[in-house]
Every structure is written in C-alpha cells, then in structure tokens.
C-alpha cells in the first residue's frame, strides 16, 4: 500500500508461507529473520521486517512525521503491532483460514484470540479520540495496523463492538492512492 | 543501559509483572499497550515500547547511525527482537524462572524454546561475520538484543553452541559506560 501511495515501482516475488523448508537458501543472505516481506534493492542490498521497510520507504514523505516525538509514536504503534497485534490477530487468521497451516490446539487459538481482542481494545481506546493513530494524521502506523485489522474477521474476530476501529478502517480506505492489499 | 551510557538522569518506578490487574488504571493514559517499560517525560508526555524508547533517546548520539539505511537496519534488528526473540527467549525465561508466572503446558514451552534457538541461530550467523549487529558498530540494536540474550541461560537456553554470540556478549559488556541491567 505504501509503495502504491508513494508511486514506487517494484517487482513482487511470492514465497511459500506454509512450506518454509527453503527459507535459509532463499533468504539467508537477505534477511536474518528468514521472513517475508524482505525488500531487495536494485544494488542488491536488502532490508527485512515489514515495519523497518515502511519506516525506510516513508522517510521524508507525508507518511512519516518529521517531528522526532511524533516519529517515535509511529514506532511505538509499529512495535505494538508486531508484539501485541500480529502474533494474535494475523496468526489466528493464518491458523484458521489458510489451507495447509499447522493444526493448533483450541486452547492456544483461544488464548491468542483473547490477546487479539486486547490489542483491538487498545486501538479502540485511542481511535475513539482521534482520526488516525498519531497526531490525527494518516501515517505508516495506520498502514501497519490496517493490514491485519481489516481482515480480522477472516480469523473469527468480531469487529462490531469496535465502532471507532470501524470508522478508522473506512478513513484509511478513503486515503488517496489506497489499493487493496489482499488478493 | 542506554540511559546510563547517555548520562541521562531518570527515576525508576517498578510495576508488578505478575499481577497486571491495575494496568489500565496505571498505564491507560500513558501507553496504549499497557506494558512496561513506559517512559514518562517531565512535561507529562509519554512513550511506550522499549525499542521506540531506545530509538527516541538515541537520536543524534553514537548509538543510532545517522545514515538512513543503517538506521533502518537497526530497526530491522529491533523488530526481529520483538517478534522472533523476546516472545520466545524472554517469555520462556519468565515462565520458568519468575515466581508467580503462569503455569504453561510443556509443549508450549518447548515450541517457544525451539523458536528461541532459531532466533539465536540467526544472530550467530550474523555475528560470525561482524563485531556488532549493524555495520560492525555498537548501537541500540545491540542493546535491544543483549537484554534477554545475556540472561537466556536463566530460561534454560544453552549458549555454548553459539561462540559468536558469546564473544559479542563480551564486547557489549566491555563498552564504555556499561552497567548491569539485572537486579
């Protein structure tokens, strides 16, 4: 979504997210975490971690505040996304909605679902008082959290008790240059 | 550790990490994730997420590279720390070493321990070729990953097969201004 909004051209190469046996061969020289997304530049250098990539691409644009404290708040939300949101909301969706995903005990799914709702509670508290997550202006913090929030329903999360999140999802989708990020 | 190395004075307030029932009351206005650490400034503003705090405090110092690509690599390692390292290495240590921590099924401990070793494998691959994680220079990426790596043994992790990590832990501890970060 950010690449589209910045007008940056790129080539996308798909990687198997179920069979990960070739990850060291495929990504070992590109990303220590052996994860996708991994961004490879034309000069062969590379960068891993979705939110580090967002930060690097957004520098100097309207999608990352210039003010250091506001930029730190953007990072705060992106670390929240990786620690409290993605491991619960995205991972539960992966387990219940992606063919071939590992079979996981119900108790673990329910524990992660409860933690996912706590992450949504945090977002709802904040978004009740502002249009976007940081200083009321659309930024990469919103992009990072929009990604798995807008498909949380596919993981069995009920967003109907979250009206502020619902209104925010609509505002994000109304941003200039917004594109669908699901197939 | 960074506050000590920067020579910044601060007051530390301890928060219960086992009984979290008062977190919304204590942190609701300060940190949407309701987690510690949360940094509160003299003007009452606040910042959550350990690595967002490190980034904000380190700006303009020798602990965060000026070059944007190197700074993005620092963030890459800090997101790796939050996604692939802390939830496995720190959380397993919490479960097995902290009195009052939740009782967790052995299978989940072992799954997280295996994931923790994969995070250590990633660090070992990188540190075999360089002195510190980003551009061979000590930075907040090293501080972020030193924290729970240097006490991984308390969680039952065996670091003896990781000689590059062992040498790096010694280099971090030899940095000017290094202080113990465990009680």
Quick recap:
Two copies of one chain form a homodimer. Chain A has helices spanning 2-6, 23-27, 50-58, 68-97, 106-127, 140-149, 163-173; strands at 38-40, 46-48.
Main interface pair?
A: A-B, 37 and 37 residues
Shape of chain A: globular
Number of helices of chain A: 7
Give the number of domains of chain A: 2
CATH topology of the largest domain in chain A: Glutathione S-transferase Yfyf (Class Pi), Chain A, domain 2
* Topology, number of strands of chain A: 2
Describe the secondary structure blueprint for this structure.
2 copies of one chain form a homodimer.
Chain A: H1 2-6, H2 23-27, E1 38-40, E2 46-48, H3 50-58, H4 68-97, H5 106-127, H6 140-149, H7 163-173
Antiparallel strand pairs in A: 1-2
Helix pairs in contact in A: 4-5, 4-6, 5-7
Task: Please give a structural write-up.
The structure is a homodimer of 183-residue chains. With 183 residues, chain A is mainly alpha-helical. The first copy, chain A, folds into 2 domains: 2-58, Glutaredoxin, CATH 3.40.30; 68-173, Up-down Bundle (Glutathione S-transferase Yfyf (Class Pi), Chain A, domain 2), CATH 1.20.1050. Helix content of chain A is 50%, strand content 3%. Chain A is built from 7 helices and 2 strands, in the order ααββααααα. The first copy, chain A, has helices spanning 2-6, 23-27, 50-58, 68-97, 106-127, 140-149, 163-173, and strands spanning 38-40, 46-48. The first copy, chain A, has a two-stranded antiparallel sheet with strand order 1-2. In chain A, β1 (38-40) and β2 form a beta hairpin. The longest helix of chain A is centred in the middle third of the chain and has 30 residues, at 68-97. Chain A is globular, with a radius of gyration of 17 Å. The mean pLDDT of chain A is 96. The A-B interface holds A 28, 31-35, 45, 47-53, 55-56, 59, 68-69, 72-73, 75-80, 82-84, 86-87, 108, 122-123, 125-126 and B 28, 31-35, 45, 47-53, 55-56, 59, 68-69, 72-73, 75-80, 82-84, 86-87, 108, 122-123, 125-126.
């Amino acid at each position: 979504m950010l690449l589209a909004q910045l007008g940056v051209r790129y080539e996308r190469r798909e990687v198997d997210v179920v069979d990960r046996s070739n990850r060291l061969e495929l990504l070992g020289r590109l990303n220590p975490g052996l994860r996708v997304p991994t961004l490879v530049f034309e000069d062969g250098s590379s960068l891993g971690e979705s939110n580090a990539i967002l930060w690097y691409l957004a520098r100097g644009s309207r999608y990352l505040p210039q003010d250091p404290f506001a930029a730190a708040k953007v990072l705060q939300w992106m670390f929240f996304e990786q620690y409290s949101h993605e491991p619960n909301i995205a991972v539960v969706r992966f387990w219940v909605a992606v063919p071939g995903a590992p079979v996981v005990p119900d108790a673990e799914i329910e524990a992660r679902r409860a933690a996912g709702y706590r992450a949504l509670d945090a977002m709802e508290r904040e978004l009740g008082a502002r249009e976007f997550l940081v200083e009321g202006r659309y930024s990469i913090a919103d992009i990072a959290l929009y990604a798995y929030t807008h498909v949380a329903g596919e993981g069995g999360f009920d967003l109907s008790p979250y009206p502020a999140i619902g209104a925010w999802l609509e505002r994000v989708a109304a941003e200039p240059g917004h594109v669908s990020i699901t197939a």
